[in-house]
Write a structure and sequence with these properties.
Layout (H helix, E strand, L loop, with lengths): L8 H12 L11 E6 L2 E6 L13 H20 L2 E7 L8 E10 L4 H9 L17 H13 L3 E4 L3 H19 L2 H9 L1 E2 L8 E2 L47 E7 L4 H20 L3 E4 L7 H10 L5 E9 L16 E3 L2
Parallel strand pairs: 1-11, 6-7
Antiparallel strand pairs: 1-2, 2-4, 3-4, 5-8, 8-10, 9-10
Length: 338
Amino acid sequence: MNATDPTTDDEVLLVAAEAATLAPSVHNSQPWGFSLHGETLDVFADRSRWLPATDPTGRELMISCGAAICYAGLALRGMGRDVRTTLLPDPTQPDHLAQLSLTGRRPPSYSERALIRALPIRYTDRGRYEDRPVPAALIEELARGVAAHGAWLRPIVTAEDEIDTAVLLSHADAIERADPAAVGELAAWSRHDDDALDGIPRPAVPSTPVAERASNYRLRDFDVGGRAPSHEDRPDASDAAPLSAEHPLVVIIGTPDDDPRAWLQAGQALGWLLLRATADGVTAAPMTQVLELPATRGQLGNALQLVGHPQMLLRMGYGAGRPTTHRRPVSDTLTVVR
């Protein structure tokens, strides 16, 4: 440890809050707030950043905050602190999502160190992935890690399941694109300023329009008012060969229950999965339209004969690399109680 390393409880909890802000969130809305007091860091939902048209139950907000809770806990482990995480610690305050308490000291494990190194480089890649499969051994490890967080992982492997998933995803996307409230939220969180501290900026969106992507899965089209150049751009589309079909790994994260605690657990599992994948060079992007409508979410569960409740649908693969999206400074999200 050097002179600049955090040493006091306040310092390590502040670093944990900063790490939590690196978590993924629906439309990069960052719907969380933190309170630091003594040996505890409390995590709260910030309902001012809720997307009620896209996420009427707040399920995706809770998943986003669950990932932030995961990242805060990992940061504390990286600083050699043991931590006890209590979800929904106060039944009278449903937006008090978690309390992380320092309980002792213990060096981080090798696997924890790998996840911590992945924290600042994890990003969402909405572009094309390389035409090579994600190794089966990694998928199996991801499934075990997700299970350790109280959730389950289901890869889409058969042609029948792929068709069912793609059809329902396309149907849900069409319904949302016809909903003025959902379209308005999408536009409100799409940023024309590349340096915006929240929302989806132009560099995070592929320049190839969604309609021209050779993908079986309908991808969400962010209204960013002019896309930034990207690695998969074609210099002259009229002369270029047609894009080959994309075949990413597609997985579902689900939970046995479907309540706020389960949503937070799904978020913790998602946060862990994304870091473990990043450690092996694999990136991901959500395809959640199908889960944002009760009808298509239920139909997906029935079509795939899922035992439990689907919470997150991801495409995964080896991306070309994109800038990470910006985050609000931790000072905008943190209250220190003396």
